[in-house]
Give the backbone structure.
Amino acid sequence: MVEFYYNFFPKNYKSKITQLIIDIDKLLDIENISINNKYTIVFDKKYQLNLSDKQWNRLNQLYDTLEINQALISPSLKKFFKKNKIDKKFSFVDTFSGAGGLSLGLENVGFNPVFINEIEPRFLESYYFNRNIPLENYFCDDIKKLVKNHEKYKHHFQDIDLFVGGPPCQGFSMANRQPILDDPRNELYKYYLELLHLIQPKFFIMENVKGMMNKSEEIKNDFHQKVGENYSIEIILLNAKDFNVPQNRERVFVIGSRLESVKASQIIQGILQDKIINKGFKLKDALEGLPSLKIKKIKNASKLENEDIGFKFRNYSTEETNYMKFLNKNKTSYLSNHINRYNNDRDVEIFSRLPQGANSLHESIEDIMPYKSRNHMFKDKYFKLNENEYSKTITSHMKFDCNMYIHPSQARGLSPREAARIQTFPDDYIFMGSNNGWYAQIGNAVPVKLAEVIGKNIMKYLGDTNE
C-alpha cells in the first residue's frame, strides 16, 4: 500500500501512512503477533517523503514484522503487502472500476483483470488493496488521457477477452432529443467507445442507468459506428433482486460479442435463465448475524470506535447462515467497516418511532418532522427499511446521510458493512479510505452476485477459445 499512496496520494501521503500504521498495529494486536524490535529498513528511502523519523521507523518496523510472520498472519494482513501477480488467462480490462464490484463478480467466475482504469484514487484504493495486481497495471486518471496515450499502454491490451465499464452518463433521458454522442455530458461514454474500439476484445459489458433503455437503438448504432460492425450487440434492463441480490436495483447492461460463433442474444438468454422465482434473499438475510450498534453521540469524531458504535476492524466470526454461504467464498474471522455514524437527537427519535416500511409522511413523526411544509418534496427524506422485503437501491447518497436507509430494528442508518452485504460484497472485502467514502464506493458498485451471473454466461463461451 505504501507504493500506492506514494504514487496516487502525494498531497495526502502523510495522513494515509499514518492511518496505514494504525490499521496494521490494530490487526497485529488482534492476531497476537509481537512487533519485531530489531527490525531492518524495508522500504527505499524515497518513500519517507514527508514522514517524520518516528513514523518512518514505525512503518518499516511493522512491515518487517509482517515479512517475518508471513506464515502466521491472516489474509487480511497480507493485503498490505506490495502487489506482484498478474494472470493473463481469461483477461479483462476494467474501466470506471470504482471499488471493484463488477470486477469481483467476474473474478469469481474465472476472469482476471489485467488493466484497471479509475479516475478517483480514493475508490481505486479499495480495489488495489483487495487484489494482488501490480501498480503498473492501474491507470488512475481520466479515460480521455488513456485513449490519447493508448500506444504507451498497448502492451496491456493484447488479446483481451473482455472489456467492461460503466461510464457516468447524464444525457440518457427521453427528454434529451440531441444525439447522445453530441451531448457534452456524455463525453466519458464516447471515450469508453473509443477505447473499446482500440482494444477490440472478444466480449464487452457496459453497465449504466435505467434511462439508457429509452435510447437503446441509438446506443446500438453508436457502438456499431464507433466500435465496428463486427460485434453483435444487445441491451437489457436487469433488476438485481431477480438474481438473489436482496435489493431492488434496476440497471441497464449493453453486451457485445465479436465471436462469429456467439451472438450477444445467446448471452442474454443465458442470463435470463438464471433468474430466481420467488425464492430470493431479503434484507433480513443480509443483516443477520451482525452485532448491534448503538447511537454515536459525538459529532465530528470520525476516528472514534468502540464496542457500542463499532469498529473498522474487529475479531468477530458471524454464524454461517445460508446467505453467508452464498456471499462468502472465503471464511474470515474479521468484521470490517461495521461502524455507526453520528445522528442528532431529532433524527434518532425519528428512527425510533417509524415502523418498518414507513417514510417521512407517517403519522408517528408528524410532530417532529422538520420538512412538513415541503412534504411533497421530502416524503422519502426518512425511510425505515422493511426486513422482510428487498432493500431499496443502495446509492452513493449514503455518504451524506443514511436517513433513507434506516435499520429495520435499530435506531440508526445502515452501516457500510450492511450496505456492502446488500450489494453482495463478501465479508473479507475491506473498504479503505474515510468512513463516509466507504458508502460512496459501495453505492456506486455493481452488485457482485449480479456481475457473477453475467460473467458466467460469457465465460462458458470462452473455454475452448483460450485453450
